[in-house]
């Protein structure tokens, strides 16, 4: 890979050549020289711009292989992202056998991670909570640390890891090079930058209108009850090699998967209730083309190493605008052209308008293909495939079989028609227009907060006395259970115990996953609350705690409730 004015280590260059890297992306061209000069940087870029290599390559260049202690720490919001980034480090450092990268995150056996760290690791990639735990156990020692990286920093703040990040950085008692990468720079992050970064240089590589300009975005108006038929017609008409289909809930994923399997599509599914080992196996099959359609939730797909996706389909419009950006960012990566289709019911139309304002980009309205169009595409594809076989492959013994069929007394046209009926699954459904017609779109004002419905209330056995803050609960539950922070509602921390609300669809997962989890190194017991939630005092409907307090930047609660 060529980086202007930079000569890379021969072993790194060899690995990059094998991976097919030629020219560095813009974020790599701008960030790598600055990092190698020892500058602190603020890298602002979207998904799919190559930022992992932008900090991974110079870190490998900087590591002293003779020192078997942590020299770089990379913090990320989820275990999936940590695993992905660590794997990228191992790829770039394939021929640097004396450099070891270890991944640490919650929800896994800490003893196994401790064993790996004691074996000598120069690069640690992990989630904030587990990193703090290992620092407190004196397993991760910071005396030789040279670089600290905050990757997906805005996501870490959203998930409640702000104080954990500050705690980790404050434990480093000597000057280190700090690199921060984030799609957005909220006010809370500016405080971290001011406190922990030394004269940082900004590197901003944002695609036009937030979303990738290489992605052709379209939406289709369709009744919710017709979405499966509409999805099938789109896949059959546009025949993507690899398609990634997003649903909002795991139930929707399961239901759509069952429908598509029954219709004979080569697909698989991925969501938070599926074991990690199975997810990785599914991902490998998808990346290798053994699975053509992967159906997933946002949380399951976030941070996964998904490559070469031709088409992203939003089976359901996401609840948050940035989820849409992350979804369609899975295609059109590293300069390649991609496409995204969104199936929109009349009730979801306002979400599309909100997304257009957020991305500052219009989404083209299109129509669902007819049955005749679908069958025409299938016929053309069948003919192309047959001609390709005739021209490029040895028919061998198949000619003898053809002769035997001809000897039955049927003409060639009848025989071909019979084989086509056997081999090609044409759409035999009744011709029906799936496109929904609604009134002219009306503009509306987007609400600044999400209103959670159908929530359940949980009791936590830890409170203020144990040093617990709302952000600790938010970060632990969201991280350990692989659920969005936006699906966790009101959090109330009392003296010896706490309460929090979460979307009811996550009830089973939270009770199961948190049974073996810890919060700030303390064993936690979470159960459904037996107390009924009192009506909130705030008229605005917001939580009774605020994430940020401008004067001291600490988590703070509003006036506590009288009594439980």
Task: Summarize the structure in words.
It is a single chain. The chain has four domains: 196 residues, 3-Layer(aba) Sandwich (Rossmann fold), CATH 3.40.50; 152 residues, P-loop containing nucleotide triphosphate hydrolases (Rossmann fold, 3-Layer(aba) Sandwich), CATH 3.40.50.300; 53 residues, no CATH class; 102 residues, RRM (RNA recognition motif) domain (Alpha-Beta Plaits, 2-Layer Sandwich). The chain is built from 20 helices and 22 strands. It has a seven-stranded parallel beta sheet, with helices on both faces. Strands 10-11-9-12-13-8-14 form a seven-stranded parallel beta sheet, with helices on both faces. The chain has a four-stranded antiparallel beta sheet with strand order 16-17-15-20, with helices on one face. The longest helix is centred in the C-terminal third of the chain and has 22 residues. The N and C termini lie far apart (62 Å).
Ordered list of secondary-structure elements with their pairings:
Elements: H1 10-18, H2 26-36, E1 41-45, H3 51-62, E2 72-75, H4 79-92, E3 101-104, H5 110-118, E4 123-126, H6 128-136, E5 147-150, H7 153-158, H8 162-170, E6 177-182, H9 187-196, E7 201-205, E8 215-221, H10 227-238, E9 243-246, H11 250-262, E10 267-270, H12 276-287, E11 293-296, H13 298-301, E12 311-314, H14 321-328, E13 338-344, H15 349-359, E14 364-366, H16 371-392, H17 398-406, H18 412-423, E15 455-460, H19 470-481, E16 488-493, E17 498-503, H20 507-513, E18 518-519, E19 522-523, E20 526-528, E21 545-546, E22 556-557
Parallel strand pairs: 1-6, 1-7, 2-4, 2-5, 3-4, 5-6, 8-13, 8-14, 9-11, 9-12, 10-11, 12-13
Antiparallel strand pairs: 15-17, 15-20, 16-17, 18-19, 21-22
């Amino acid at each position: 890979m060529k980086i202007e004015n930079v000569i890379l280590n021969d072993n790194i260059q060899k690995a990059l050549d094998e991976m097919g890297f030629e020219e560095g992306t813009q974020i790599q061209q701008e960030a790598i020289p600055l990092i190698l000069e020892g500058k602190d940087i603020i890298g602002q870029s979207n998904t799919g711009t190559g930022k992992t290599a932008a900090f991974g390559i110079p870190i490998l260049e900087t590591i002293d292989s003779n020192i078997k202690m942590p020299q770089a720490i990379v913090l990320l919001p989820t275990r999936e992202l940590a695993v992905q980034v660590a794997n990228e480090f191992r790829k770039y450092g394939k021929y640097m056998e004396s450099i070891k990268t270890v991944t640490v995150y919650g929800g896994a056996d800490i003893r196994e991670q401790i064993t790996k760290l004691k074996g000598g690791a120069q690069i640690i990639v992990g989630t904030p909570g587990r990193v703090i735990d290992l620092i407190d156990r004196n397993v991760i020692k910071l005396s030789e640390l040279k670089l600290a990286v905050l990757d997906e920093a805005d996501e870490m703040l959203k998930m409640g890891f702000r104080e954990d990040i500050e705690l980790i950085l404050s434990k480093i008692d000597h000057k280190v090079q700090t690199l921060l990468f984030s799609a957005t720079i909220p006010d809370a992050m500016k405080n971290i930058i001011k406190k922990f970064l030394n004269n940082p240089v900004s590197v901003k590589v944002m695609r036009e209108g937030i979303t990738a300009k290489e992605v052709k975005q379209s939406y289709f108006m369709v009744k919710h009850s017709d979405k499966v038929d509409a999805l099938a017609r789109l896949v059959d008409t546009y025949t993507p090699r690899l398609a990634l289909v997003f649903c909002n809930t795991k139930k929707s994923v399961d239901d759509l998967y069952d429908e598509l399997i029954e219709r004979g599509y080569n697909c698989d599914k991925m969501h938070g209730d599926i074991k990690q080992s199975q997810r990785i196996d599914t991902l490998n099959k998808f990346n290798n083309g053994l699975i053509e359609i992967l159906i997933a939730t946002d949380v399951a797909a976030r941070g996964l190493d998904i490559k070469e996706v031709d088409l992203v389909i939003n089976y359901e419009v996401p609840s948050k605008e940035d989820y849409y950006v992350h979804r369609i960012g899975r295609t059109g990566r590293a300069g390649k052209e991609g496409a995204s289709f969104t199936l929109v019911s009349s009730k979801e139309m306002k979400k599309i308008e909100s997304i257009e304002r957020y991305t500052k980009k219009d989404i083209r309205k299109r129509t669902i293909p007819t049955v005749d169009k679908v069958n025409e595409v299938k016929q053309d594809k069948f003919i192309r495939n047959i001609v390709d076989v005739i021209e490029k492959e040895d028919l061998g013994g198949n000619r003898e079989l053809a002769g035997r069929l001809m000897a039955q007394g049927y003409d060639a046209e009848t025989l071909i028609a019979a084989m086509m009926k056997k081999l090609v699954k044409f759409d035999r459904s009744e011709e029906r227009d799936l496109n929904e017609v609604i009134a002219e779109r009306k503009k509306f004002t987007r609400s600044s907060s999400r209103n959670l419905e159908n929530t359940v209330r949980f009791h936590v056995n830890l409170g203020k006395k144990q040093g617990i803050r709302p952000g600790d609960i938010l970060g632990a539950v969201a991280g350990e259970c692989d659920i969005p922070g936006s699906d966790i509602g009101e959090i109330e921390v009392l003296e010896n115990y706490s309460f929090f609300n979460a979307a009811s669809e996550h009830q089973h997962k939270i009770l199961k996953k948190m049974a073996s989890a810890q919060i700030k190194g303390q064993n936690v017991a979470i159960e459904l609350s037996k107390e009924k939630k009192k009506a909130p005092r705030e008229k605005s409907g917001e939580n009774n705690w605020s994430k940020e307090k401008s004067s001291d930047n600490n988590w703070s609660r509003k006036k506590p409730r009288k009594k439980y």
